[in-house]
Amino acid sequence: MKAFSEKVRKHLNVGHEILYLTRDEVKSLEVPKEVLYEKVKQALTMYSNKETQMPPKSHIFPDENGCYISMPGLIPETGSVGHKWVSAYNNNVKEFGLASLSAMILVADYESGWPIAFMDGIHIMETRTPAIAAVIAKELARKDSEVFGMIGLGREGRNHFPVMPDALPNLKKILVWDISEEAMDNAIADFNDKVPVPMEKAPSLEYIVRNSDVLCSATFFKIYPPKPPIKKEWIPKGQTIIVTDLHTQFEGAIINESALYVVDSKSQQEDLVKEHYFYDEIKEPDCEVGDIFAGRHPGRTSDDDIIVASPQGMAIDDFAVTPSVIEMALEKGVGTILPL
Ligand SMILES: NC(=O)c1ccc[n+]([C@@H]2O[C@H](COP(=O)([O-])OP(=O)(O)OC[C@H]3O[C@@H](n4cnc5c(N)ncnc54)[C@H](O)[C@@H]3O)[C@@H](O)[C@H]2O)c1
User: Fold this and answer.
1) Which single residue of 25, 74, 157, 193 could bond 81 by disulfide (Cβ 3.0 to 4.6 Å)?
2) Is the dihedral of CA 164, 166, 167, 169 positive or negative?
């Protein structure tokens, strides 16, 4: 029996009980950053090694402003399996004062298939996604990268600030940009004292693009997206671009003329192309992030390379982290155990 299943059985009557964890409870169990980096790197590598099972995400659309995403995944090595259910509604903040993304995770027992936990998925998602950006930056960014630029300062974007300094040993400055002035002010007020380098508001989108060595974007994605505003001629030599929003801000030529275009899952990428998530026609990815971690692809080969990495997010990123959260919750008595 898998070690995780054994640990769960010490606290939970599997098949008869389920652990429920709220967002605050998941947050209170904070997985250490170093553990997060290791888990997501392992998951990306195992995925590209074909050691996991993960059917591509499936999307359903009530209309062009909303989308539901179904994300099952299984990691045999750790006995982690389950299903994440996400919704993305672009007008939520304006219409309901709610965040655009919601996410719940159902985790099953690897041995019997019975559900063992139902939990908030937002906290795991908003911390594992920037952790993925950080491990990619550590691997692919020029070693002399001094300026990190963050476009889009919502939940995902803001969570890049605690992790990016870990990936960039020569970091000297953080630039921020958002269409919302308030989001920029809040990001600087909330993080300036928590990061080891000064944070500055960029005066324009063009400025942040031209002046960042590592540039991340976490804005929005949607089916049939509008024309991307960032132009090829703004991109400096050697820039590492890491996006969690399907590069909706970057014109196709940036991707097509990059030295390396890398995604987390080529098969998910094929579906996204078919489903019209990209404004421009874009080239096929050169490889998966996991191919680079596994040593099958060299990654950056010159300081002049412009690299675009687009980790679109995979179910197994979450299921790499859920065992640590569940183990901690059961050991510390956090959460509510409910009858099935
Ligand atoms: N790849 C992954 O694994 C993964 C995981 C979770 C979320 N995401 C994606 O990350 C993105 C951000 O998610 P979030 O939860 O932080 O959303 P959010 O709504 O909390 O934040 C989005 C931020 O982007 C800003 N923004 C919107 N359009 C912009 C533009 N054109 N230029 C600059 N700023 C702009 C908004 O003002 C807001 O501050 C979404 O596209 C989401 O789908 C990806």
Assistant:
1) 74
2) positive
CA of 337 to the centre of ligand 1 (A): 33
Can you give the pTM of this predicted structure? Answer: 0.96
Identify any residues that bridge with 31 across adjacent strands, giving them in sequence order. none
The reported pLDDT for the residue numbered 170 is: 98
Indicate if ligand 1 lies below 6 Å from the C-beta of 99. Answer: yes
Domain range list for the chain: 3-124+316-339, 140-312
pLDDT in tens, 157-185: 999 999 999 999 999 999 999 999 999 99
Ligand 1 in reach of 67 Cβ (< 6 A): no
Q: Which CATH number fits domain 3-124+316-339: 3.30.310.10, 1.10.630.10, 3.30.1780.10, 3.90.1150.10?
A: 3.30.1780.10
pLDDT greater than 90 at residue 30: no
Q: Which of 127, 190, 244 to mutate to test the pocket of ligand 1 (most atoms within 8 A of CB)?
A: 244
- Domain covering 140-312, topology: Rossmann fold (3.40.50)
**Sign of the torsion formed by the C-alpha atoms of 247, 249, 134 and 335:** negative
